[in-house]
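Our preliminary data section would be incomplete without showing what the modeling component actually yields. Below, a chain of 292 amino acids is followed by its predicted structure, encoded as tokens that our downstream tools consume directly.
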Amino acid sequence: MTTVSMPQATFGKTGKRVPLLGLGTAPGGMGLADADAIALFERAIELGVTYIDTAPGYDRAQHQLAHIVPHCRAELFLVSKAHTVHYQEALDIVEKNLAALATDHLDLMYVHSLGHLDVEQVLAKDGAIAGLREAQRRGWTRSIGITAHHAPWKSAKVLGEVEIDACMFACSFVDCHIYNFEEVVLPLARAQNAGVAAMKVYGGSIDMEYDRPRPSELTNSGFDDHERALRYALGLSGVHLAVLGVYTEEELVQNVEWVRRYAPLDTNQQQALLAQGRDIARQWGPHYGSVE
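Predicted structure:
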């Protein structure tokens, strides 16, 4: 498959070059017919969006990707997730992901949604991090990491106690006033040169539902300048890319265009946007889960 070049960054200690835009496959897997999702995923790859983010919980996404991955595996940075605290279960999930995605290795495997997990067990000798390290030793995944939407203290604990290769956090100009991964967690990721992906940069979908196209939380709050929201996330110190889910080629192409012309916000633009975000944060509250 021929791909068009995209602006790229080195994804922390993974050493891999990744595009500034990654594709989240939940909308395709949960909200599109297989043929439509496959066509959309292929179009993203053609446009240079080669960081592909998936998970077993995204309904048919991995089945859809299995039609694509064998034909362009070398071009992809392929990412999946394990929502578990246990060593053996994490190992089993990685193995099942390989079969589902028709590949012999992943580029990155995350312990997913850390805010909902017992972080002490995740870090235990028989915990999920150790399980993913064993998967890495076996060559099933090249890198390991964590994702989190809320309870940033748990991510800070992981980054303070163990070395990981990458992480993905909910980072928006609104959520910085609620969860503040920017100040609580990102400095710890930078300190160990972990790759960082920003997610939910438009606030995500209401109630995290992807069975059909829905407006972003930003749109529902009366904010429509999504390009500025994307520029905020990409401009955060230590962030290497933003991962977005889309339902249509039109959405995809628009986000690709924004990334290709990306420039950081200047100080005045940043301050004005954060002031708007503070007002919206009062409406949202802790919408992903508790801060603590």
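Strands lie at 8-10, 17-19, 21-24, 51-53, 77-82, 108-111, 144-148, 166-170, 195-199, 241-245. The longest strand covers residues 77-82. Preliminary results of this kind motivate Aim 1 of the renewal.
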